[in-house]
Amino acid sequence: MSENFAVVTERLVKRFGDFVAVDHVSLEVEKGEIFGFLGPNGAGKSTTIRMLCGLLTPTEGRGSVNGLDIATQPEEIRRVIGYMSQKFSLYDDLTAEENIDFFAGMYGVPRDQRPERKRYVLEMANLSERRGALTCTLSGGWKQRLALGCAILHDPPVLFLDEPTSGVDPIARQAFWELIRQFSKTGHTVFVSTHYMDEAEYCHRLALMYRGKVIALGTPQELKQSLTSQQLFRLETADPLATMRALEGDGNIHSAVFGGGLHVAVAGGDRAEDRIRQKLAAQSIEVRRLEKIEPTMEDVFVATIEEEERKAA
Amino acid sequence: MSYRRLRAVFVKELHHITRDRLSLAMALATPLMFLLLFGYALSLDVDRIPTLVYDRDQTPQSRDLIRQFEGSRYFQVRRYVDHYSAIEHDINRSRVLMALVIPPDYSSNIAAGRRAAIQIILDGSDSNTASIALGYVQGLMRSYAVAPEVVDIRRGQMPSPPVDARLRVLYNSSLESKNYVVPGLIAVILQIIAALLTSLTIAREWETGAMEQLLSTPLRPAEMVLGKMFAYFAIGLADATIAVVVGLLIFQVPFRGSAVLMAVSTCIFLFGALFWGIFVSAATRNQLQAYQLGILSSFLPSFLLSGFVYSIENMPRAIQAITYIVPSRYAMTILKGVFLKGVGIDVLWGEFLFLALYATAVFFLAVRKLNQKIA
């Protein structure tokens, strides 16, 4: 069954004592897909990835990577995956080239392929000129690309990236995602976690994770369309907090702080804008700006989480 | 086990070592500092004992006795006093260690053929030196008392059967402490340096998060342990060479045995000591803890339980039993044997075997610990 899928999990559970870090997660990631794992810190994204990489043993459930069972074949899995952990990128006191050589040794890149792979990585990271520079002198974006290069030296069919872009500037982030997209075009599967909602748009499919559970799954477009039962408005007033209080109490209206203003979701379609204006007028709050907008991934996320919490309550 | 991965770890560690110039300099300077400090300060020879003289007899006989003390290299007469309180005063301030008091009836007793007594006052707060000083006094008095006996023989009396003890000291004939301090010190130094070098190495991988990355690769614990060990072995070997050269050139310690035997046994001892540091590092996950535990577990046993400072024969039985698992005890026996006695593998094979077994055991222990921590 797992032949066509790069990553499969079935009701995967990880408990640390009483704490359930990953709660019955079932996923299927197709080969060549960029699969995004979205969620706040502590949602269980890293724990899931670490189980898939064979770094943690699942408490319950099953999983496979490239057809290999994560519980019984972790050694084999290590040969077919690349992994970039959240915390570590590279050895700072080694040069770019020495880092590449080290990881080429770790992954057992055949000797005759090494020069070519090394050149590929150096070009990809745009570091051909600075191959002899100590890694600690490289900027965040460069380091990130070099770390990515080191993780794919052995041309792994599946690549796991755990928050690869945290702490990197927006332009470098964009360049990084361009590399990931190229990598996936050549048939490689990329499993990436992030808490940057805007990065979700780069993924083919997404899983929203919250408190150990996958609460939504689909393409970015599908997830946004799931919000069509609602209309979304951008609202600006003098006092956002008072505005939020004024809009409380109506089960069909939900608001959240967003930038300098509010995003207000209204369920039930008809005359949504009028309903907002009426409510605010009743509290004599002046509306500076009210406009209908397309939902972003963050809106989807907020709406899904709120629904999840309502269900739990 | 993959030779490629082992080699990659080895090369990477060498890069770490050579990039960190300060640590490298310290690692190479430490044996020199240890040898110079301990080699000179840890002299266990007692001589030129500062001495006071209180001559209450003031006769040619008493002055002759004092000359015996002045002429000995073991005593140094600081000054003459005329009151007991002056002796107490100087001993309390640690200006002198000993006082010689000649009673007023000393010469009259000798003249009358009676036993003449003298009084020796010692600072017992340093009991070790005090008992050595007492031994010197007794030796001096014995030789001083020989002359009257000869006179007795001339008078035709039967002397008590003379026991003529002639001492022959083997191997360290001048009984200089540096000759056994330096070889022992080399073992202590290597044990400490090895633990210092390696104790941080795996803890650092955990702290930087590199371990997580390494674990996602096919690297196996045994390859990591061996790769790291061989990298630090290079420094350990340099340290050993420095220590031996300093011992031979600066301290002029005799070298009577086989250089090959010493080189091989030093390597095996280093393997064990380095694996121990790696084991400590794998067990703690934290650089500070690893460092402290590494120092403690290498310095204390090798200094106190190896027979380096305190002889094992005089220890309580329970402690003696512990010394059997202290590797530097065996390294010390080998080093002293090779340096001073010139004995070979036919005598030292037991110690040799222990060090080899110890290194193997600690290697497996380190790999197991790492496996445990990973799971």
Task: Write a structural description.
The complex is a heterodimer of chains A (313) and B (375). Chain A has 313 residues and is an alpha/beta fold. Chain A is built from ten helices and 14 strands. Chain A has helices at residues 45-52, 74-80, 96-107, 114-124, 140-151, 170-185, 220-225, 240-247, 272-282, 297-312; strands at 5-16, 19-30, 34-38, 60-65, 68-69, 81-84, 158-162, 189-194, 205-210, 213-218, 230-237, 253-258, 261-267, 287-292. In chain A, strands 6-7-8-3-9-10 form a six-stranded mixed β-sheet, with helices on both faces. In chain A, strands 2-1-4-5 form a four-stranded antiparallel β-sheet, covered by helices on one side. In chain A, strands 12-13-11-14 form a four-stranded antiparallel β-sheet, sandwiched between helices. In chain A, a hairpin with a 2-residue loop joins strand 12 and strand 13. In chain A, helix 3 (96-107) crosses helix 4, helix 3 packs parallel to helix 5 (140-151) and helix 4 (114-124) runs antiparallel to helix 5 (140-151). Chain A is globular and about 75 Å long. Chain B has 375 residues and is mainly alpha-helical. Chain B has two domains: 3-43 and 176-374, no CATH class; 49-150, abc type-2 transporter like fold. Chain B is built from 15 helices and four strands. Chain B has helices at 3-19, 21-41, 60-71, 84-92, 106-111, 127-154, 177-199, 201-208, 210-215, 221-249, 259-284, 287-304, 317-323, 327-341, 345-374, and strands at residues 49-55, 75-80, 98-102, 119-122. Chain B has a four-stranded mixed β-sheet with strand order 2-1-3-4, with helices on both faces. In chain B, helix 7 (177-199) runs antiparallel to helix 14 (327-341) and helix 14 (327-341) packs antiparallel against helix 15 (345-374). Chain B is elongated, with a radius of gyration of 28 Å. The model of chain B is unreliable at 146-165 (pLDDT under 50). The interface between A and B is medium-sized, with 29 and 24 residues.
